[in-house]
């Protein structure tokens, strides 16, 4: 599952945030990959990162991250794209062949902006290759933003890697972006203000109370419901002005799509829940991480020391639930 969105404060702090919802325990940790780090693609090509980046990931021989931000302010998150993702079976030798789970590492290590992404994307192909942790070919699509606040989505529903402008700055899971955007037409009546009283015959009908304008806003955890709910909340939530106000606003929006353990079970009985939430800010180059086990938020800023480290640096997180006592 998973939900992601961009957000911009009044002072032009640009954010990308996401929930990581999964039934398989991922054990991801915040990790910094330095610039000039050498790594090898699954199909053999050796690469060196042009830019350093931070994200949540895991070492599986090479580090793979599910989201992150690089030193140029490019921020990316991958989300499940079940039934829609189609990858290359016979790679073109003239293109760089990348497994789906490797694309974010290539993006963050090589691309500085969405403008540059548009130029380089035609040189890359996503190939049918298994993820070594999940031992399956993972169906993915990707949401991307940069320091300008522009937002695009990368999808392969047409059989090739395509960049799509995202006018609402939100992404969930299947179907493809165009379907989600068209589905918003069904919710034209949703609004933050109450409906007025209405007379039918001689009966004056009044709202039950505050919030009548949101009647019909979907509340379930399916991808279409989460997409609509996030678009609405993103549109009307007060973003604040400062960096911390923006982080708080984005996390408040994610509260509406965060999945507790046990309320959403897969067919095999496993629980699909929000394992962590992440927020990335493209000016300060700060990555915010919040695991399921605690409401505490951990921040990690890209510094020159980290960017020039000799090897990737992992940051273990204390997930102990803490309570501040007001009693002396």
Plain-language structure description:
GO terms for molecular function: hydrolase activity. This is Penicillin acylase. Belongs to the peptidase C59 family. By secondary structure, the protein is of the alpha+beta class. The protein has one domain (3-181, 220-314): Penicillin V Acylase, Chain A (4-Layer Sandwich), CATH 3.60.60. It is 16% helix and 30% strand. The protein has helices at residues 103-110, 114-120, 177-183, 223-236, 243-255, 304-307; strands at residues 3-8, 14-22, 29-33, 38-40, 46-48, 53-59, 63-70, 75-80, 96-98, 124-126, 140-145, 151-155, 162-165, 170-171, 198-200, 203-205, 273-281, 286-291, 298-301, 313-314. An eight-stranded antiparallel sheet has the order 13-12-11-8-7-6-3-20. Strand 18 and strand 19 form a beta hairpin.
Fill in the keyword field for this structure.
328 residues; 6 helices; globular; alpha+beta; 16% helix
How is this fold's topology laid out?
Blueprint (H helix, E strand, L loop, with lengths): L2 E6 L5 E9 L6 E5 L4 E3 L5 E3 L4 E7 L3 E8 L4 E6 L15 E3 L4 H8 L3 H7 L3 E3 L13 E6 L5 E5 L6 E4 L4 E2 L5 H7 L14 E3 L2 E3 L17 H14 L6 H13 L17 E9 L4 E6 L6 E4 L2 H4 L5 E2 L14
Parallel strand pairs: 9-10
Antiparallel strand pairs: 1-2, 1-14, 2-17, 3-6, 3-20, 4-5, 6-7, 7-8, 8-11, 11-12, 12-13, 15-16, 17-18, 18-19
């Amino acid at each position: 599952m998973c939900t992601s969105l961009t957000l911009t404060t009044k002072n032009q702090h640009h954010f990308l945030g996401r929930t990581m919802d999964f039934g398989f325990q991922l054990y991801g940790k915040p990790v910094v990959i330095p610039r000039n780090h050498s790594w090898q693609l699954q199909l053999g090509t050796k690469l060196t990162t042009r830019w350093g980046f931070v994200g949540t990931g895991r070492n599986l021989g090479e580090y793979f991250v599910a989201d992150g931000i690089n030193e140029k302010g490019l921020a990316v998150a991958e989300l499940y794209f079940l039934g829609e993702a189609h990858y290359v079976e016979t790679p073109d030798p003239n293109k760089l062949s990348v497994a789906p789970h490797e694309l974010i590492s290539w993006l963050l290590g090589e691309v500085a902006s969405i403008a540059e992404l548009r130029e380089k994307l035609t040189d890359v192909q996503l190939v049918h290759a298994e993820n070594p942790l999940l031992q399956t070919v993972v169906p993915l699509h990707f949401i991307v933003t940069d320091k300008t606040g522009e937002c695009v989505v990368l999808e392969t529903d047409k059989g090739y890697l395509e960049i799509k402008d995202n006018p609402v700055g939100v992404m969930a899971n299947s179907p493809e972006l165009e379907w989600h955007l068209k589905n918003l037409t069904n919710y034209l009546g949703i609004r933050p203000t109450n409906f007025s009283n209405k007379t039918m015959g001689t009966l004056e009908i009044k709202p039950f109370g505050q919030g009548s304008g949101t009647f019909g806003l979907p509340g379930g955890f399916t991808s279409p419901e989460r997409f609509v709910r996030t678009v609405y909340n993103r549109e009307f939530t007060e973003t604040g002005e400062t960096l911390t106000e923006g982080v708080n606003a984005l996390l408040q929006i994610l509260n509406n799509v965060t999945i507790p353990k046990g309320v959403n079970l897969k067919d095999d009985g496993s629980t699909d829940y929000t394992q962590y939430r992440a927020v990335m800010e493209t000016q300060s180059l700060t990555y915010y991480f919040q695991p399921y086990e605690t409401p505490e938020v951990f921040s990690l800023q890209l510094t020159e020391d980290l960017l020039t480290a000799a090897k990737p640096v992992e940051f273990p997180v204390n997930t102990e639930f803490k309570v501040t006592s007001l009693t002396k």
